[in-house]
Amino acid sequence: MPAGDCQHLEGILFMAPTTTKTPDTRGLAGQTIGQTEVCSVNQTQLIYRGYEIADLAANTTFEEVSHLLLVGHKPSDQELADFTEELAGYRPLPDALVSMLVDAVRANPQAHPMSLLRTGVSLASHLDPDCEDNSPEAELRKSKRLLAQIGTMIGLIQRTIDGNDPVQPDPSLSHAANLLLGMTGQVQGEFAAKVMDVSLVLYAEHDFNASTFTSRVIASTNSDMHSAVCGAIGALKGNLHGGANEAAMDMLKEIMDDTADGSMTVDQWMQQAFDSKKKLMGFGHRVYKNGDHRAGILRDWGLRYVEAENQAQQALFDLGDAVQEIMLRDKNIHPNVDFPCGMTYFAMGIPVPQYTPIFVASRITGWCAHIMEQHQNNRIIRPLAEYSGPELRSWNDS
Question: Active-site residue among 293, 334, 338, 375?
Answer without folding.
Answer: 338
